[in-house]
Amino acid sequence: MIDKGYLLGERYRIIDTLGEGGMANVYLAEDIILQRKVAVKILRLDLQNEPQTQARFQREALATSELSHPNIVSVLDVGTDHGLPYMVMEYVDGPDLKEYIRKNSPLDLREVIRIMDQILSAVALAHKHNVIHRDLKPQNILMDKRGNIKIADFGIAVALNQSSITQTNSVMGSVHYMSPEQTRGGLVTKQSDIYSLGIILYELITGKVPFNGDTPVSIALKHAQEPIPSIRKKDKSVPQALENVVLKATAKDPRDRYASAQAMKADLDSSLDPERSDEPVFVPNHGNSNDKTIVLPGFKPQKAESAEEPKKEEKAEAEPIKEKKSFWQNVKDHKWWWIFSVIAAGLIIFIMIFALSGNNKKPQDVNIPDVTNITEKAAENKLEAAGLQVGKIIRRQSDDVKKGYVIASKPTAGNSVNRGKSVNLIVSSGSSMVKVPNVVGHDYDKAAEKLENQGFDVIREDQYSNKIPPNDIISQSIAAGVEVKPTQTTITLVVSKGKSPRQRNNSVTLKDLRNYSLKGAQDYAKEHGLTLQINQEYSDDVEKGLVISMDPGPGTKVDRGSTITIKVSRGPKKEKETTITKTFTVNYVGDNVNKNEKPDNDKDNSSSSSESSESKGDHVQIYIKDDDHSLSNIYRDYT
Questions:
Q1: Is residue 548 a contact partner of residue 580, using CB atoms and an 8 Å limit?
Q2: Coiled-coil region(s) at which residues (predicted)?
Q3: Phi and psi dihedrals of 460, rounded to 5?
Q4: What are phi and psi of 41, to 5 degrees?
């Protein structure tokens, strides 16, 4: 284990452990140069001297670094630290697909197809580079917070042209998602990955894997011998066309599976179309080619004990040889021979009826032939010979298929359809740079079909919008006019879900918010989808913290999302306290002064009066008028 805080390769500071594996440990680290979080896979210390493990680690780095795709975890750097190999990858902050299925099952079927399309798009690119993953499972598929898929862990991936890879490591991976040929240690091909993709699709739809068992051996045997459990028997809402995608991808014989991940994606994308609602159950052409005994790696068949008995002494006289009788002679010798005769006659009649009924099979049921990688004319002839018609011809860019040759058919090969039905052909228009069309504001279904017909991979992201109608495109990930190779380009389309539930009722009649508290006004605005602009001002009449006024006023109808301006009281404005000193003189009058004579008053603030008091002095009263005093009350009384 690497300690937290360790600076790997003088650049990546270890923050935490993300996972531990049989070959390597994965850590969360910070790139101190670019100041971003990354995932670092480091070969385990106890395996650094094993050449086979080092080769496998290097193979993963090489295989992943060659694959640049938005749905494949990117390799950012590779290196060694004190002789220990490491690989730096983008950090995906989110759950793996296994955890996502567990928390969100059952998934909406359109969500299933959205997720599966991203996986298939990534696998198609890997296969295009002749890289077979060999360990496709939900645990190796990550999902970021925006719902984007990232395939990781190409640790046991192999390149088809690597002659050094032997059969001894071809069965590595999770047995729940392993193809029958992998469990036998047989040759692993692109169709082996497609089998695993079929199992993943099954789990996305149902929430669980098709086969379970007490031991890996028992699970492997089920994959090789038992049919995939029917999805529609448990859930009738799943269309037969969608179940057929699972059945074809997981056919026991690789020849019955999809020819490519791209072909599986094309079939999956149309599986919810109404025109495929009456599609019959998929039936493989080659049946179960795996009926022979399976020998799993690590298990040796036990030798049967010899049944030979110890030699006995030869008899002096040879026993007479009994004459061999035919089966019918033995039957006739039996006392119940007539019962056997009746049973045999009944069996013969039954077989004849069965054979005749087989010959009366409805002539309109035909299987679509495989017309991929042949010229358009040859494909038309092949379909017509099978009793089918050629429907629409869709031109699509392709780097893999020559111009004028068929990429795929819709419906795909192997499906059983009515005689005379039209089959659409997707024909290669060659490989070249094309300008990305502007599809913003267009209907998603039409725009996606247009882009896919040009060869683009399309990913859909849904988002609420007040302005854009539902199912119309808000934005596209690659700007219009940019020249790209369609077969190597994935375009993400952000599609409007319409207004959010709170905004669907667009009109609000404003309530009188005056004398509401500020929090009460904010809660009202939030509940009705309004924006508040808050101004504060002093008020002698409205208590501090309460709404003084609003604009627009109460009773006004406004759209949700509108801005309402309110004035909130700060309370009365506090004046500064000022001390004013007034000086005045009160003359002593004594007995000789008229008692009614008053001294001069301070003109606004005070008055005084004096009365003679025989021996006690003058009597003085003071009056003040201000915010706290009135002239009707005596402020001070002196003698």
A1: no
A2: none
A3: -105, 135
A4: -100, 125
Q: Name the residue among 351, 339, 423 with its Cα closest to residue 387.
A: 423
Interstrand relation of 490-496 and 457-463 (parallel, antiparallel or unpaired): parallel
Q: How far apart are CA 204 and CA 232, in angstroms?
A: 14
3-state SS, residue 450:
helix
**Structure token digits, residue 598:** 């008053």
The pTM assigned to this predicted structure is 0.48
pLDDT tens readout for residues 423-469: 999 888 776 678 889 999 999 999 998 998 888 888 888 888 878 88
Contact by Cβ (8 Å): 374, 401: no
Q: Which CATH architecture has domain 502-569?
A: 2-Layer Sandwich (3.30)
- Alpha helix (H) residue ranges in 374-436: 376-385
Active-site residues, by number, are: 135
Rounded Cα–Cα distance for residues 184 and 43 (Å): 29
Residue 128, annotated ligand binder? no
CA distance 363 to 149: 45
- Residues 330-377 pLDDT 10s: 555 555 555 666 676 667 776 666 555 544 444 567 888 989 889 989
- The full length of the chain comes to 639
Please name the helix (run of DSSP H) or strand (run of DSSP E) that holds residue 225, with its range, or none.
helix 216-225
Nearest to 286 by CA among 383, 402, 353, 370: 370
Sheet of 84-90: strand order equals 7-8, 12-20, 24-31, 36-43, 84-90, 75-81
* β-strands 531-537, 422-428 pairing: unpaired
Run of H or E including 459: strand 457-463
CA distances from 542 to 192, 550, 569 (A): 77, 14, 6
Alpha-carbon dihedral sign for residues 85, 89, 91, 92: negative
Please give the CATH topology (third level) of the domain spanning 434-498.
Trypsin Inhibitor V; Chain A (3.30.10)
Distances (CA, A) of 409 to 161, 175, 232, 262, 597: 29, 32, 25, 12, 124
Interstrand relation of 422-428 and 389-396 (parallel, antiparallel or unpaired): parallel
Chosen CATH of 370-428 out of 3.40.50.300, 3.40.50.2000, 2.40.128.110, 3.30.10.20: 3.30.10.20
Question: Top-level CATH class of 94-287?
Answer: mainly alpha
Q: Can you count the helices (H) and strands (E) in the chain?
A: 13, 27
604 and 625 in contact (C-beta within 8 Å)? yes
Nearest in space to 82 (alpha carbons), one of 27, 19, 183, 9: 9
94 Cβ neighbours under 8 A, 6+ residues apart: 142, 143, 144, 145
Tell me if 124 sits within 8 A of 198, measured CB to CB.
no
Segment 169-184, tens digit of pLDDT? 334 457 899 999 888 8
On the 0-12 / 13-18 / 19+ scale of CB atoms within 10 A, 191 is buried
Q: Are 617 and 636 in contact (CB under 8 A)?
A: no
Question: What class, spelled out in words, does domain 1-91 have in CATH?
Answer: alpha beta
